[in-house]
Amino acid sequence: MTEQDGLVRFGVAMEAPLLRAFDALVKERGGTRSEILRDLVRGEVGRSQVASGAPAVAALTVVYDHHVRDLTERLTELQHALGDKVRATMHVHLDHDNCLEVTILKGRSDELRRVAERILATRGVKQGGIELVALPEGEHGHAQDHAHGHDHEHHDHDHEHEHEHEPRAPRKPKKRASAAKKKTR
């Protein structure tokens, strides 16, 4: 093995049919063997870490019938009970009966999986799933330290930043609807 610029070269042996299939995958994705192999290894290492209760982030997707009695309230209560594990939620009305909710979670992967199973088993939830991604070891950057999903220009509280913000022009106050109506009369 030789090490160069943080990369280590090594040989890989595999059956010819598997190599042909791998090369087809490389061609389809438009990368190199090394890039695709690194992606595959990262994915497998991540799956292994998630299976062992590693720190993770998750996207929980739920489709549910909002006409089911108290379902919306139960889902909201479940999210509030999770505290800072819930990082953000997006709610979309799909049609007259169905809503889609995507919740971003952060915590131990085994705990997030249990939470997802409880939510997905709630009466009225039609379909859903969770996608877990292990957090890289030792990375505790700025974005991971905040449990709110908005950009920094709207902060009305103090906290330290580890990065600089570009200066922004002051915002013009929005006109109120009643003031706009008076001008048109």
Overall CATH architecture of the domain at 55-134 = 2-Layer Sandwich
Please report the number of helical segments.
5
Question: What is the succession of H and E elements?
Answer: EEHHEHEEHEH
- Mean pLDDT comes to 78
The CATH class label of the domain at 55-134 is Alpha Beta
Provide the CATH superfamily of the domain at 55-134.
ACT-like. Chain A, domain 2
- CATH topology type of the domain at 55-134: Alpha-Beta Plaits
**Which percent bin holds the helix content?**
25-40%
Please compute the radius of gyration using only Cα atoms. 24 Å
Uncertain regions spanning at least 5 consecutive residues = 140-168, 176-185
Domain Transcription factor NikR nickel binding C-terminal: 57-131
Function: Transcriptional regulator.
Keywords: DNA-binding, Metal-binding, Nickel, Transcription, Transcription regulation
Family: Belongs to the transcriptional regulatory CopG/NikR family.
